[in-house]
Design a protein that fits this description.
14 helices, 2 domains, 2% strand, globular, Peroxidase, domain 1, single chain, mainly alpha, Peroxidase, domain 2, binds protoporphyrin IX containing FE, 349 residues
Length: 349
């Protein structure tokens, strides 16, 4: 009997080795995110999630508008070459402009000092252990929970990149004036379906935008058509009261409007109800309610906050798996704004 079992045991052993060693290493860098798991730091830094939560809550007490900033930071990190904290780097050896300086990020990124504080505290408690990419993911989860959604588990184990290029952000991040088909293309390239796009856009149920992003819709839409006909007229009036036709240069950050005029601080399906009433702030939002491919999904999300919540959280986890670096790829940055300066660093950013 024993003899009979040996080949079977050998086959099982070979299969296990193949599955555990060969397959994951082949999968690396392909953005599958299969190496991430919940409780990744349970032995090496068990207090990590509490520290992130405490710091985010402390900062939010001073700035109630923090949650949308952290949620957007996560999205903008993950959509540009994956969730690798490349968005946090101030410089790379090549001297090329970094993602932070791109058009879509530029002056509008917020919450960076919160990530710095979390990292500083973690370096005291568990030195050289927690990646900046995981900190962004944990902080985004706290943001979503503070904005009213159930607090979900976050798979972790991401590592940090040593590269960051503004040009990558320019081609990877959607803008409000892009045709919907182009936005769909950006999401499809990252394996997000039409439903995922509609569901994730529900993030625009919290936060603000600079008036500059919407002024064309209110004042100079087309020759002889000052206002975008896709905007509800009363809503357009409301926006015009907050946004002057000419925002003084260098005053952009002083003129902002809520993305959701009804419940601006709560993550909920109000966004979809707004779209049904032509109260989507961006053309790219409003297009979801009229495009034949997405209209029905908007209606479904408008009909059930519960259905949207479930799908939104699922998509947060999916987004967090985008093109991640794991195991021996990348590094654990000591300071989230700088790649580690080691004598043997090889970096071709
Ligand atoms: C579908 C295409 C999208 C476009 C065109 C877009 C564009 C924008 C723009 C222009 C702003 C305003 C920035 C500013 O002026 O400060 C903004 C804000 C925001 N976006 Fe998006 N976005 C998109 C999708 C997403 C997704 C998928 C998420 C997250 C899952 C997200 C989360 C946010 C949040 C939370 C804010 C508010 C930020 C704040 O208050 O600081 N967006 N978005």
């Amino acid at each position: 009997m024993e003899i009979c079992h040996r080949p079977i045991a050998a086959i099982i052993l070979i299969f296990t080795l193949f599955a555990n060693i060969i397959l994951p290493s082949e999968a690396r860098g392909q953005g599958l995110g299969n190496d991430l798991h919940v409780g990744f730091y349970s032995k090496t830094c068990p207090q990590v999630e509490d520290i992130v939560s405490d710091v985010v809550k402390r900062f939010q007490a001073q700035d109630p508008k923090l949650p949308p900033a952290l949620l957007r930071l996560f999205f903008h990190d993950c959509f540009v070459k994956g969730c690798d904290a490349s968005i946090l780097l101030d410089a790379t050896p090549s001297g090329q402009p970094v993602e932070k300086l791109s058009e879509a990020n530029g002056k509008t990124l917020r919450g960076l000092e919160v990530i710095d504080e979390i990292k500083a505290e973690l370096e005291k408690s568990c030195p050289r252990t927690v990646s900046c990419a995981d900190i962004i993911a944990y902080a985004a989860r706290e943001a979503v929970a503070l904005a009213g959604l159930p607090r979900h588990d976050v798979p972790a184990g991401r590592r940090d990149s040593t590269t960051s290029r503004a040009t990558d952000a320019d081609v990877s991040l959607p803008t409000p004036t892009m045709p919907l088909q182009q936005i769909i293309g950006i999401f499809n390239q990252r394996n997000f379906s039409l439903e995922d796009i509609v569901v994730m856009s529900g993030a625009h149920s919290i936060g603000e935008s600079q008036c500059n992003q919407v002024n064309r819709r209110i004042y100079t839409f087309a020759p002889n058509v000052p206002r975008d006909p896709a905007l509800d007229p009363a809503y357009a009036d409301e926006l015009a009261q907050k946004c002057p036709a000419q925002v003084p240069p260098d005053q952009e950050l002083n003129f902002k409007v809520n993305l959701d005029p009804v419940t601006p601080e709560v993550l909920d399906n109000q966004y979809y109800l707004n779209l049904q009433q032509k109260k989507g702030l961006f053309r790219s939002d409003q297009a979801l309610a009229t495009d034949p491919g997405t209209q029905e999904i908007v209606n479904q999300m408008a009909a059930s906050n519960e259905a949207w919540t479930k799908r939104f959280i699922k998509n947060m986890i999916k987004m967090g798996r985008s093109q991640v670096l794991t195991r021996d790829e990348g590094e654990i940055r000591l300071n989230c704004r700088e790649f580690n300066k080691e004598p043997d660093r090889i970096d071709n950013a």
